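Morning. Coffee machine broken again, so started the prediction first thing and wrote up yesterday's gels while waiting. Chain of 293 residues, entered below exactly as on the submission form.
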Amino acid sequence: MNVIEINNLTKQYGKARGIVDVNLNVEEGEVFGFIGPNGAGKSTTIRTLLGLIYPSSGTATIFGESCTKNPEVRKELGYLPSEVFYYDNMRVIDLLKYSASFYKKDCTKRINELAEIMDLDLKKKIDDLSFGNKKKVGIVQGLLHEPKLIILDEPTSGLDPLMQQRFFELIESENKRGATIFFSSHILSEVQRLCNRVAFIKEGKIIKLEKVSTLQENSYKKINIETKEAIDGESFNIDGVSNLKVKGTTTSFIYKGNINIIMKTISKMELINISIVEPDLEEIFMHYYTKEE
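Came back before lunch.
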């Protein structure tokens, strides 16, 4: 079952680009990564999916329902926006109780559990909180009703490393509980840790949708060589080579293709050292962002 279905979703802001023909599905129980630099269209896609802004064309559904036509479906999801804004004079606990009232269930125990995990002082006023602590409020607010779908837009910005670790553990436990996670980020290590599949978005368009495990399989190699003499980078002007870096006698690059072809080029050089390893997700990501369209 697909919890999220997005088909040819387009959002235009006058002459400015928003998103163009975005297509993706998120399966029940999946942790799905949505990756791209700031301004690529991640937040626009999420806000259009949630019915917070209206699409120019295309469709988007959650649990088979449109948030625009059936806003009550939002009760089944928790949403953490990339930036959180609150009424400053409220205490944290009052804000969270107010949020819980929309779900017609007693969330007191859950609020206290989440606040303890995230080291959040429930008695403080919102205007006394740092940006990071306001982000913690958003995390608790998004999870207090035990949603079936959790949508996170750049969730770790403002959190210190310890809180990031606790947050990751919390999200992993929510997924084990059965929640589906849609995780937007520009930090590749986060996605590599958490996600089953990932979609890359560039300039408002999906440029790749793949399993994280597949992206890291043998089709990609990171090659590092050290030669006796400096080489001309043009030697590696070969299909499948990207992220080429030449520094003195050291050369590194990502290669996708027939390994025999690249080895024929390398074999013509006088080598001191060579290593061939699997690249991490960030290096694969840069492969898609730097290659010519």
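The two ends are 33 Å apart (CA to CA). Going to sketch it on the whiteboard this afternoon.
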